[in-house]
Amino acid sequence: METREAKPVIFLFTFPLQGHLNPIFQLGNIFFNKGFSITVIHTNFNSPNSSNFPHFTFVSIPDGLSESEATNPDVIDILHDLNSKCVAPFGNCLKKLISQEPNAACVIVDALWYFTHDLTDKFGIPRIVLRTVNLSAFVAFSKFHVLREKGYLSLQESKADSPVPELPYLRMKDLPWFQTEDPRTGDTLQRGVMKSLKSSSGIIFNAIEDLEPDQLDETLREFPVPLFCIGPFHKRVSPSSSSLLTQDMTCLSWLDKQASKSVIYISLGSIAAIDESEFLEIAWGLRNSNQPFLWVVRPGLIHGTEWIENLPKGFIENLEGRGKIVKWAPQMEVLAHRATGGFLTHCGWNSTIESICEAVPMICKPSFGDQRVNARYISDVWRIGLHLENKIERVNIENSVRTLMTSLEGEEIRKRILPMKETAEKCIKLGGSSHRNLENLIAYILSF
Ligand code: UDP
C-alpha cells in the first residue's frame, strides 16, 4: 500500500481584525503552497469565512465577548478583553490539537495575541509571531517606553512639528499613539506585545527589507530573535478573500468605464472613523476636484450616522456618474485596475503595501497607531504621496486630488513609486531578499 509522507502542520492563531486577517491568511496560503498543512485557530468574534479556504482546517474558540464588549468602539479595549478571555479557550484548544497531531511544526500567532507565550512554552511548541506593521513603524513602537518617559507622547501643539531625536524622519505628531480612552491601556498593550515578541522563536513581517534598510539594522540590533521580512505576501499567492464585509464588485465594472489613471480611490480602512463634518468636507472636496472618484464609506466610518444619509440631497445624482460610493470594495483589484490613478488612504500598512505594489501614489490621511509613521514615510522619505497635515477642509482635498492626479508634481510622485513597485516584484523572485528570507524561514521551521 502506498504511504504518504505526512505534512508538517502549522497552527495559525488569527487576530479578529480585518487588517490582521488578510495578511495571516495570505501567509497561510504561502506556507500551504510550500507543502505545509494549515490549521486556523480563530475566535467566534469576527469569525473568518472558512469556505474561502477549503484547503485549511478551521478550529474556533469561544472568546467570551459579550455583545457590548464586541461592539465597543475602543478597539484597544476589545484587544485587552480578547487577550484575557481567550487564555483558557486557546490553551485547551492548543493542548488538544498538539496531542492529536504528531507533525505539529509550530504555532504562528498574530503579535496582538500577547498572552500566548506562557502557553506555547508550557506545551513545548515553538511560537513565531506575525507582526503586521512595517519595520519603520516597528522600530517606533519598540521605543514606545522611551518616548513615553520623555513625554513625547503627550503631544503639545507647539511641539507637533519638532523632530524626534530617537527616530530620524519622524516628527512628534507622527509618533504611534492609540485611539483609546485610557492611555495606560495603550502602554499595557505595548509592553505585552514587546515581551511576547522578545520571547518568541522568530518574527515574520509583511515587509520588504530593501525598502527599509536602516530600520532593518536597527531592528536586528534591538531584537534577539530571528527576523524574516517576506513581503509582499499578497503578491506571492492567488487572491482569496478573508474579507469580513461583502465586497461590492460593481466597483470593477464602474472602473472599466473610466479613463486610465483618472480615478481617485478613497478608503480609510476597517477601523478609522471620522466626524460628520470631515465626511462632508471630503465629499465636497472630491466633487469640486472634478476628478472621478470611488469612495469606500464603511458603515460605522462616520461617527453618529448609519451611512451616507447626511450627504446633501441630490449630491450623488449631480455627479452624473463621476463618483461612486460603496460600503466595501475589492481593494486589491481596485488598486490594480488601470483606471485607478491615486489613493486617498489612512495609511494602514496593508493598504500602503498594496498601493506600492500597483504603483498607485497616495494622499495620506492617517489617524492613529502606525498610520502616522507610514504617512511620513510615504510623503517625506519615499516621496510617493502627499500628506494632509492640516484640518480636513474641502479646499485641501480638492487641491491635493488635483495635484496628485493632474499636475507635474503628481507626475513626479508617480514616477518615484514605479521603482518601489519593481523592488516589490523583484524581492519575491529567485535572488530577491524576501525569496531568500522565506526559504530561510521554512528551513528554520523544519529544523524545530
Ligand atoms: N480593504 C478591502 N476593502 C475596502 C477597504 C479595505 O478589502 O473597501 C482591505 C485592504 O485591502 C486591506 C485591509 O482591508 O488589506 C485594511 O488593512 P489596513 O492595514 O490597510 O488598515 P486597517 O483596516 O487595519 O486600519
From TrEMBL:
The keyword Ion transport does not apply. It is an enzyme of class 2 (transferase). One of its GO terms (biological process) is defense response. Its EC number is 2.4.1.-. Signal peptide: none annotated. InterPro entries: UDP_glucos_trans, UDP_glycos_trans_CS. GO terms for molecular function: quercetin 3-O-glucosyltransferase activity; quercetin 7-O-glucosyltransferase activity; salicylic acid glucosyltransferase (glucoside-forming) activity. Keywords: Glycosyltransferase, Transferase. It comes from the Eukaryota. SUPFAM superfamilies: UDP-Glycosyltransferase/glycogen phosphorylase. Transmembrane segments: none annotated. Belongs to the UDP-glycosyltransferase family. This is Glycosyltransferase.
